[in-house]
Amino acid sequence: MTYNALDVVRVPFPFTDRAARKVRPAVVLSDSIAFNTRAGHSVCAVITSAQRSAWPLDLVIEDLAAAGLSNPCLVRMKLFTLDHRLVLGKLGRLAGDDAARLRHRLGILCPQAPFEH
Q1: CB within 10 Å: which end of the chain, N or C, has fewer?
Q2: 3-class SS of residue 96
Q3: Which domains are assigned to the chain?
Q4: Distance CA 43, CA 84 (A)
Q5: How much is the pTM?
Q6: Spans of the chain below 70 pLDDT
């Protein structure tokens, strides 16, 4: 299975051998053709409901239904690479406005990277 940029997926945290794990959503950032399919991994950002501790570039997800989320959440720029074998399923996909705002924040995070195709 491969995933596309902007897919919202369910992943186990932490990814190590610790006894306690929680299933949490994340958003795929990397391109399926350029990276995900070839590597068998995706670069992702954490999705959290933690609104008490703001991080730079946090993005409130406005269209929860499209993303497959039921509670208010935000994308947090805690980035990680995850083996597709660990993904527990796809929840949804970031909608147009949320996707545009995420691309804008990624441009701020990595200003020299070309995020437009």
Answers
A1: C
A2: helix
A3: 7-96 (2.30.30.110)
A4: 10
A5: 0.89
A6: 14-20, 113-117
